[in-house]
Amino acid sequence: MSAVINRHVGAMTRRMRLWGLALRRRVRGDAGMTTSEYAVGTLAACAFAAILYKVVTSGGVVSALTQLITRALDVQF
């Protein structure tokens, strides 16, 4: 009888140990970015914004947008 109980206790102990390990991994996991990743991400976003600003404010794009808006406002209903 004690062998059966010991086997069940051993199995339960292993399950509890695995459950605790999974819980610790989930709590301790790398779910977010570190400070250096934030810095690189912010720098990349600023560089993209600067390039986009230069493209949108260039002469060709400004004239194309102006023509597009002018044509849209001149539509006869």
From TrEMBL:
Source organism, top-level taxon: Bacteria
Pfam families to which the protein is assigned, alphabetical: DUF4244
InterPro entries found in the cross-reference section: DUF4244
Name of the molecule in the record: DUF4244 domain-containing protein
Source taxonomy: Bacteria, Bacillati, Actinomycetota, Actinomycetes, Kitasatosporales
